[in-house]
Amino acid sequence: MTFTVIPAIDLRSGNVVRLRQGDYAQQTSYRVDPLTLAHDYAAAGATWLHVVDLDGARAGNLANLRTIEALAAGRLAVQAGGGVRSEDDVERLLDAGVSRVVVGSIAIRDPDRVIEWIARHGAERICVALDTRNEAGRWRLPSAGWTENEHATLDDLAPRYAAAGAMHLLCTDISRDGMLAGPNVDLYRHVRALAPSLALQASGGVRDLADIRAVRDAGCAGVVLGRSLLEGHLTLADALAC
Q1: Does the pTM exceed 0.85?
Q2: What is the C-alpha to C-alpha distance for residues 222 and 206, in angstroms, rounded to an integer?
Q3: Domain ranges in the chain?
């Protein structure tokens, strides 16, 4: 199985930012143009780019669609999400040149609908995002930019999507996101046991090459890197070589 290192760009009002544990009040802004950053990632050897529309994730619309379209016109294959609430949103992103649409909130709230989208558009074009927070020993799945609690759990939905023919699963331990505290390797081993057929992308907490090796060795198909690249804790070239 090929292991893919995927640099990430989180967008808010068209700017590159990072949040701590998904908290919109704890934002770090970076003085770099998203298109320039994507160009640099491509020059370093990346093949994929992960883009999150943070405005859209909270408001339920494609607030940064123009920027996403410009990123998708570059050299990198783009997987993008945040604010996808309908099939029209899926089609707008695909029409904008996005290679893979990431669906999160709607994947938690209405899995039947997302399973229909997977069947209609193809499993390669849809990535299910089950970002999770451990509460009293259960992996809960908050939605709407991680601001609203839902009843479904990771243990409920990961096997369901696998059985329905999904191919890609992105999973973030929200408590690790933007914290540079290391990835939750035990969580990824748990997901692999729940749904071994899914190509699992790890996200949240990665700070160095040892962390990348750890999620790879846990059976993940890829890793999403955000703050660690933006702040120089590791270089993309080293991560790709790893």
Answers
A1: yes
A2: 12
A3: 4-241
The set of catalytic residues is 10, 131
**What is d(CA 10, CA 218) in angstroms, rounded to the nearest whole number?**
26
- In degrees rounded to 5, what are phi and psi of residue 188? -70, -35
Q: Considering the domain 4-241 in this protein, what is its CATH number? A: 3.20.20.70
**Block residue for tokens 């970002």:** 131
Q: How far is CA 57 from the centre of its chain?
A: 12
Alpha-carbon gap, residue 47 to 179, rounded angstroms: 25
Q: What is the pLDDT of residues 69-88, one digit of tens each?
A: 999 999 999 999 999 999 99
pLDDT single digits (tens) 100-109: 999 999 999 9
| 92 vs 232: CA distance, rounded Å | 34
CA gap 104, 13 in Å, rounded = 20
Write out the DSSP string of the chain: ---EEEEEEEEETTEEEEEETTEEEEEEE-SS-HHHHHHHHHHTT--EEEEEEHHHHHHTS-TTHHHHHHHHTSSSEEEEESS--SHHHHHHHHHTT-SEEEE-HHHHH-HHHHHHHHHHH-GGGEEEE--BEEETTEEE--BTTTTB--S-BHHHHHHHHHHTT--EEEEEBGGGTTT-S---HHHHHHHHHH-TTSEEEEES---SHHHHHHHHHTT-SEEEE-HHHHTTSS-HHHHHH-
* Torsion, Cα of 20, 45, 217, 226 (10° steps): 0
Within 10 A of 20 (CB to CB), how many other CB atoms are there?
Answer: 15
